[in-house]
Design brief:
single chain; alpha+beta; 6-stranded antiparallel β-sheet; 7 helices; 38 strands; 16% helix; globular; binds (2S,3S,4S,5R)-3,4,5-trihydroxy-6-oxo-oxane-2-carboxylic acid
Length: 598
């Protein structure tokens, strides 16, 4: 076996002891010549992890019928790609381990072309073999990666074998403990991408920060002929901007136009063509300006109130990881119906269908990396992994105007210097990758005494928005009348966003609020929402709220035998799609906020 080969399309790649990442650039797959490899793939389920010892990727086959032969894809089960393996086979429901996947593709060798295999996401560690050679690895379950295979493919049959392992890791991101389902597998689309020898590797075509009419972006070429004439065309606006990329392949893009700006009410997208002498990409791009001015959030110069909802990437009806456009429409349709103009895609980057569909439906998007609660900040590899996930997320979505917020962490409550150092560094780096969007860290570190909140965290001074998960009425009992609540912020002049609140209710559990079982009833949840809404009036600089959460979701740690059974029941909608009483309270509030805060 060749030594693990890392294919870096752009600049340097990172290698962390025992952990490698196979990319340093993103090829945007929209508008490209791709071959979709989705479908039923043969698999070997490997609970004890002996496939490496058996060298599954060498695919030894018996010559004679009498040859000893016990590890094979032939005659075995299949698995749908994309899709998580846990929901596809009942015996794998709680499986956290290795599954090997195989895909055979027939290829022609075209000397003028380069070829890449692109994975939308694989949870959690992927090892990729092509024709028996290890060609790359990737860690991180929610971001795309690709590997160049130009020199590894042969004319005719090519066999890919992917080892996927979803075991939780102490030094993983997320770490060992998290309140959602650990769906493993090749959970998003797989494509082969063909490019010319020199191709457009990446681009950012977005409005300059604080501007409503000036594009300030760039195009980056990759390959043997980096300096080329670059054109950015927007036919609808009669724009045909021309520039030349330098010897590093980089071209700055700057022009003015009279755009119809993207808004939730009119989510206008333009057909944008990015062209070099050797390559062309077509993308649908919208233009908007998001900024914080004083204690408010402004979209295109107009103060807005974020009417958000939290969503996990799960189709509750199928009890599986959501991965398709249809899944996205189901989840986002509910969010739209609730009256949202924003969705928080918690707690990791969701698939591209979610981001693109939300943008098309007129909902702003909060994108987050899985830096969640129990992160091992003291391990020096962990901050590097966070950085890579951040880059992969930003590279994928930097041209999605719907994305307005990069969220860099959620409830990292071990206040150590390592935690502060890693997250402050991450904040600096995201600004280098993209300076146009808002940045936040989510905390639950408020003190709450005598019905008074004291909100502080060193990280807030590095964020554009103070995002707070508070759960009063559920984990934290009310200490007085909701309308008498006082709020004291260490930083008094920043926009405040209530990023999580709510409580659990099993749909159909209808007890009066004074009954003993009230805690899990729809009425109790409804009362939490009524009280919270009353309290929101007392939160200074409130720029938006975001219930936890849209729909019940699977979480193996939620094992109340009557009310949970493996589901977190804080949804406003049940796993069967039924709307709970609190849904109507929230919908009414959002409806009202149309007029009061805009
Ligand atoms: C939180 C977390 C979220 C949990 C939620 C809950 O604070 O951010 O991931 O699932 O609480 O249901 O307790």
């Amino acid at each position: 076996m060749k030594h693990c080969k890392l294919i870096a399309i752009g600049v340097a790649f990172l290698a962390i002891s025992g952990w490698v990442n196979s990319q340093s650039a993103m090829i945007n797959i929209s508008g490209r010549n791709t071959t979709c490899l989705n479908g039923e793939w043969p698999v070997i389920i490997d609970p004890t992890g002996i496939g490496d010892w058996r060298q599954v990727w060498l695919e030894k086959k018996p010559v004679k019928k009498t040859d000893f032969f016990e590890y094979s894809f032939e005659g075995g089960p299949g698995m749908k790609v994309p899709g998580d393996f846990n929901s596809q086979k009942p015996e794998l429901t709680y499986f956290e381990g290795t599954v090997w996947y195989k895909k055979v593709v027939f290829l022609k060798i075209e000397p003028e072309k380069r070829v890449f295999i692109h994975f939308g996401a694989v949870n959690y560690v992927a090892d990729i073999y092509l024709n028996g050679e290890h060609i790359g690895s990737h860690e991180g379950g929610f971001t795309p990666f690709q590997i160049e295979i130009t020199k590894d493919i042969r004319a005719g049959e090519n066999s890919f074998i992917i080892k996927v392992n979803n075991q939780r890791l102490n030094d993983g991101v997320p770490g060992l403990g998290y309140d959602w389902f650990n769906y493993g597998g090749i959970t998003r689309d797989v494509h082969l991408i063909e490019t010319h020898k020199a191709f457009i590797e990446d681009y950012q075509i977005q409005l300059q920060k604080h501007s409503n009419n000036t594009i300030f972006g760039w195009v980056k070429m990759n390959g043997d002929h980096k300096s080329q004439t670059i054109r950015v065309k927007i036919p609808e606006l009669k724009i045909d901007y021309k520039t030349i990329s330098d010897n590093e392949g980089f071209a700055e893009v700057r022009f003015k136009a009279d755009f119809q700006l993207w808004t939730p009410e009119a989510p206008k997208l333009y057909n944008v063509i990015i062209q070099s002498e050797s390559d062309t990409i077509a993308d649908e791009i919208g233009f908007r300006n998001i900024e914080v001015i004083g204690n408010g959030i402004f979209l295109n110069g107009k103060r807005i109130f974020l009417k958000g909802v939290n969503i996990h990437e799960e189709n509750p009806i199928k009890a599986s990881r959501a991965y398709s456009e249809e899944d996205a429409r189901l989840l986002l349709g509910w969010a739209k119906d609730l009256g949202c103009n924003m969705v928080r895609l918690a707690h990791y980057p969701h698939n591209e269908y979610m981001v693109k569909s939300a943008e098309k439906m007129g909902m702003m998007v909060w994108n987050e990396i899985p830096v969640y609660q129990h992160i091992e900040f003291s391990d020096p590899d962990v901050p590097l992994k966070m950085e890579i996930m951040l880059k992969e997320m930003v590279r994928r979505d930097r041209n999605r105007c719907g994305v307005i917020i990069w969220s860099l962490s959620n409830e990292t409550y071990n206040f150590t210097p390592n935690r502060d150092k890693a997250l402050i560094e991450l904040t600096k780096n995201v600004k280098n990758l993209d300076s146009t969007r808002l940045i936040t860290h989510v905390m639950n570190s408020q003190g709450y005494e005598n019905n008074t909140f004291n909100v502080w965290d060193p990280l807030y001074s590095h964020a554009d928005i103070i995002s707070l998960n508070e759960y009063v009425g559920w984990y934290v009992p009310w200490q007085g009348n909701p309308t008498d609540t006082q709020w004291k912020f260490a930083l008094a002049n920043k926009p405040v966003f209530i990023s999580e609140f709510g409580g659990e209710a099993l749909y159909g559990s209808n007890y009066g609020p004074k009954d003993e079982a009230a805690y899990w009833s729809e009425e109790y949840q409804e009362q939490i929402y009524t009280d919270q809404i009353a309290m929101f009036e007392k939160v200074p600089n409130l720029c938006g709220v975001c219930p936890w959460l849209l729909v019940d979701y699977r979480s193996p740690g939620r094992m109340h035998p009557v009310f949970q059974n493996g589901w977190n029941r804080k949804g406003l909608i049940s796993d069967k799609g039924e709307k709970k009483k609190a849904w109507y309270v929230m919908k009414q509030y959002f409806n009202r906020m149309n007029y009061e805060k805009q």
